[in-house]
Specification:
heterodimer; A: alpha/beta; seven-stranded parallel β-sheet; B: alpha+beta; SH3 type barrels; Hormone receptor fold; Arc Repressor Mutant, subunit A; 23 helices; 13% strand; elongated; zinc (chain B)
Amino acid sequence: MSIRTSYFYDPDVGNFHYGAGHPMKPHRLSLTHSLVLHYGLYKKMMVFKPYKASQHDMCRFHSEDYIDFLQKVSPNNMQGFTKSLNTFNVGDDCPVFPGLFEFCSRYTGASLQGATQLNHKICDIAINWAGGLHHAKKFEASGFCYVNDIVISILELLKYHPRVLYIDIDIHHGDGVQEAFYLTDRVMTPVIKQVVDFYQPTCIVLQVSRRRRRRLSGAVGHCESIAVCLQCGADSLGCDRLGCFNLSIRGHGECVEFVKSFKIPLLVLGGGGYTVRNVARCWTYETSLLLEESISDELPYSGEKLYLLYTLKEISGSGAICWKYLEQIRQTVFENLKMLNHAPSVQIHDVPSDMLNYERTDDPDPDERGAEENYTRQEAANEFYDGDHDNDKESDVEI
Amino acid sequence: MAANMYRVGDYVFFENSSSNPYLIRRIEELNKTASGNVEAKVVCFYRRRDISHSLIQLADKHAKELEEEKENPTETDLTEKQKHQLRHRELFLSRQYESLPATHIRGKCSVALLNETESVLSYLDKEDTFFYSLVYDPTQKTLLADKGEIRVGPRFQADVPEMLQEGEADERDQSKLEEKLWDPECPLTNKQIDQFLVVARAVGTFARALDCSSSVRQPSLHMSAAAASRDITLFHAMDTLHRHNYDLSSALSVLVPAGGPVLCRDEMEEWSASEAAMFEEALEKYGKDFNDIRQDFLPWKSLTSIIEYYYMWKTTDRYVQQKRLKAAEAESKLKQVYIPTYNKPNPNQISVTNGKMATVNGAGPGAFHAAGGGRACESCYTMQSAQWYSWGPPNMQCRLCVSCWMYWKKYGGLKMPSRAEAPEERTSPSPASNSRPRGHTARQSNHMVPMRNSGSPKSSMKTKQAFLLQATRLTKLARHMCRDIIKLRRAARRPFVPINCGAIKAECKRASSCSSSVVSLAESRPASHAPRSHRTPGLQTPPPRRLLSSLPHGPHGMLGKRSYHHHSRAEPERRSGTCETSRREMMWKNMFFSQQK
C-alpha cells in the first residue's frame, strides 16, 4: 500500500516579516513551496490550503490572557502594553510585527489539521513546514516562537494514540514541548536528549542508526499504536546564520528517512533555520525523501529564484570532518547540545567550541632508519695493531 | 603570524592598567576610527574579584547546588591549591558592551561555557582557558544562570486529554476546515500535467501580448514568456486542474474564458514603475521596516503585498547592483586586526641594575632594593627571578617573580594560595595596629602578613595611621609566658572578648619567682640551633644570642640602632618553634638584665 502524504501550505504565510534584522524569515516557506512545485513534488501529494486556527484552538494549551494579548497587540498600540510585553516576553527576540496573530493562526492551523488527518487516517504522513515552533511556552513567547503548534498538534494526536514520540533535530533544544509534557509519560520527549546521534554528521548517523533502531523498535514493540512528531529544524545545518553545527543537507535528510522507515503515522514540521537558501533546499530534499521521489541535484530553472546559487544538496564547506575528530566528538556534541540550550532567547552570540587536536607528531617514525650515529660499533682497542709483537708498552712477556 | 591576528569573535586580554590584571573581553566588532586607530567593541567578562562578596557567595551556593543535582558525582576532592587556582578561572559573562582601543590587546585566551559533563580540572591544565556559567548584570548587580530550567506546575504543563473511546465523535468536521488543492490520485499522468502547464504559460504569454499595460512593461517576447512562467501562473494552472476534477478539456476552457486569455499577475508585475521607485527610496531611507514604509510611502498597498514584492525585488538586477555597492562598503569593516606583541616595560617592573625603584605610585625616592636581598615573591616565595614586579599597595613593597606576575595579570590572583592574597580575601586592609597587641615600630604592615625585613636602612613604607604602642617589659614578657592563657590567635579573631588579665598577672608573678634559675640555664646552653651572626655596634648590652640571626631574612643592620624591645616586637607570631624558643630565652635574659639595672 502506497503511503499517502499530505502537504499543508498557506499561500500567505510567507509574506510576514519579523522586522528589520531579525533572523527568522517566513519567506523561506514560500521558497520551499516554489521548489517543491518546480521539482514536480507538488503533484505527488495531497496539497491542502489549511484552515486558520482559532483562539479556542490555541487555548487548548496556552493561557487565555496570553492569546488574548497576542490578538490585540500590534506595532501601533505597543506602548499601551508595556507591562504585558514584559510578562509575555514579547518585544525583543519575539518582536511585535504586523499580522503576528494571523501568522500564528496560519501555521498552527496547518499543524493541527495535519494531526487531525493522521488521526482519521486520511494520510500516513503530514507535512507542514510552517510549523515546528517549539520554544513557545504556555503563557509566554520565546525564541521567535509565539504559539506552540507542536504541543497543540500532539494534544490532538493524543486523542487517538496512547503515546506520541517527539523527535527534534533542531539545533536548539525543544524546551517548550518538553516543559509542556514534562509530567506525562504519554509523550516521549526525553528520548531526544539521549539521541545525540542525530546531530552528528552523516557518517555517524549511519553507524548509529542501527543502535537507535534497536532502541526505538523496542519502544514501538511496546505499543500497538504510536505516532511520531518530527521537528526538522534546519539550523543544525552547516553555515546557518545562528547555529554552529556542520550537518549537510544529506545528513539532515538521513534523520528524516530513518524516522520514516518505521512506517508509523508521522507529522513532519519545520522549525529553525536562518540561512534561507539552505533551509528551502533542505526541506525540499526532505519532502522528496518522504515521497520517495528522487530529484536531481541541479536546481530547476525557475526565473524568480535565481539567487539560489548552489545546487540542491550542497552547502558551501559542509560535511567535511575528519574521522578521528568525529570519534572524539560524541561526548563533545552532547556538551555542545547543552551549551546551545535556549540560545534563541539569548542575545545572538557564538558559542565557542572546544578544539581537540589528536595528532601526535613528536613520536619518531618507527619505520625509518635513524641517523648514522646509532649504527656504528665500538672500535676495539687493538684493531689496528700490526701483530702480536706490536704492543703498547714493553712487557715482560715474550710471545 | 597567526598568534598576533585577532578577529571578531576572539577572546582576548586587554590591559587598561599596568598593575591590575588583564581584562578579559570578547571582540564583537572591529572599527576604524576617524583618527585611523582601530577600536574594538567588546563584551565584558568579570572575574570573581570584580564582583561583590555577597554575589560571590550566591554563585558558590549555586555551584554547590549544581554539584548536588548532578547524577553521577564523580568529582574527586580538589586540593587547596587546585581550588584556589580554579577560582581564578571562573568568569561571569555580562551583556555589557564597551569600546576599547585595539592596541591594548595583550594576547588571546579562550572562554567556554561550563558544562556538567566536562571535568572542571581540565581547565587548570590548559593555559589561558576560562569558563563561565553565570551572567552578571553590573547595573542591577544580579547573577543569573545562563541556562533555562524546566518549570513544573499547572501554569506550565499542558492538560493532556484522555484518549477518545471507540466510536466517540471528534468535534472537528474535516470538510469545513481545509481546502484541498491537489490530489495525487488524479487520472492524469505526469506528462499530461506538464503539458497542461506549458499550455498555461503559452496562454499567459499571449495574454500579455494583448494587454496594453503589460506590453509596455515587457516589450520583448522573451520577457513576456518569462513573466508568464512565474510561479503564480503555474499554481493557478494546478488549481484549475484540480477544481475541474482533472478534466483537461474543461480546465483548458477555463484558461481562455470569454473575456480573453487569463492573465495572472503577481506583485512584481502589478506594481507600476513609480511605485517601484518609491519602494526603493523608502528602503534606502527606512531599511527593512516594512510597516513604516507602508505607512509613509505606500499606504494603498497591503503589508503582505509589500513583503511579497520585496522578496521578488531581491532577485532583480537593481538589487544585485546595490548589494555589490554595500559589499564594497562592508569591506572597510574590519574582520581582523594585527597587533604586534607588546614589548614596552611595565611600569611595575622593578629595575635592579641602576638601583632605582620605579613603582607606579611613586613610593618614595631613595629606596633601594638589593637584588639578592629583596623580599621573596609574595606568591611562591622564590628569591630568584629574572625580573621583579612590584605588586600590592606601594607601602608594602611586595613583589612578584616573573611567572607569578604573569599569573596575576592573566588570572587575577596569586598562583599559590597564600596569606598574602590580601585584596581579595580581606574586606578592608586596615593598619593592623589596633588588632595587634604588640608594640609597633614605624614599619607596620597594612595586611596581616608577616613583616619581612627587606634590609633597607630606611623604610619607605608610609602608613596611613602611624601608631606606636609602647608596652611595658612586663607586658611583653607576659605575652610569651602566658601564651596559653592569652591564646593570641583566638583573641585576635574575637576582638570583643576581653582577655583575662588577672590570670595573666598571677601567672607572671609565679613565673618571675623562678626566673633566675631559667636564666642561668639559658646561659649555659648556647643556642646551637640558631646560626650566629656578627655583633652590631651600638648596642649597649649585647646579649650572647642574637635574635635576628635565627630568622631567614637578611641583615638586621637597621635594627642595630634600636633596642631589643622594639626589635623583638617586629617578629610575628608564626615563626618556627626554634626561633620562638630562642626569643623566649632572649626575653628572659633581657628581663633579667634590666631588672639587674
